[in-house]
Design a protein that fits this description.
It contains 2 helices and no strands. The protein is globular, with a radius of gyration of 13 Å. The two termini are about 15 Å apart. The model has no long low-confidence stretch (mean pLDDT about 80).
């Protein structure tokens, strides 16, 4: 599993376990395959997190 639940908190998909599993499969594929190198993917992830004000 790529995404762990926040310590002491709830996941955004607690009520949808099938969706949570599908999201983790997709997320794992996006980060382990593709044309971009890992540093470029990380910069995109950080930019997106700042854009949507993600606290994780």
């Amino acid at each position: 599993m790529r995404i762990r639940r926040p310590e002491g908190g709830a996941s955004f998909l607690d009520h949808q376990p099938e969706m949570y599993a599908a999201f983790n499969r997709l997320y794992g594929t996006l980060w382990s395959e593709g044309e971009l190198d890992q540093p470029t993917k990380e910069v995109g992830r950080i930019r997106n997190a700042r854009l949507v004000d993600c606290k994780l």
